Amino acid sequence: MIFILSKYKRVETGGALVGYYSEQAIVIIHATGPGPRGRRTATSVIVDGEYTTEFCHNLNQLSDGYLYYVGDWHVHHKGILVPSFLDKKASKILIESKASPIPCIAYLIFSTNMENVRAYNMSLETQDEVEIKKCLTPEWVLDFL
Ligand SMILES: [Zn+2]
Question: Where in the sequence is the domain holding 140, given as residue range(s)?
């Protein structure tokens, strides 16, 4: 992810998150960039849906369905690490379209320098900030890294 940010320093960037749901936590294993046809401006990023869908689908197939799309990440250049109106609208569309098999998605919002990040559990009704914990990679996931 650091490579992606340094390459596109002056524009917003982001992508999809792949992982799984376990014990009331969303576990994130992979993150994509915006994809080759992603559109990045100073204030927004529109990911290449075909690219991210294929990335998530491939990992889903390789893992026999254990890994799947669990959310999105992106950068906020203005330093306000809370979901914008458009972020909330986009997450509702993703949840309603059943992009993920779980009824909520993770949203990670990074500062430009990647020193700060906040995580949100986005559902149709709420957008709650949640704690981020690093954990050991489960052994069964090692085959899909
Ligand atoms: Zn945003």
Answer: 2-144
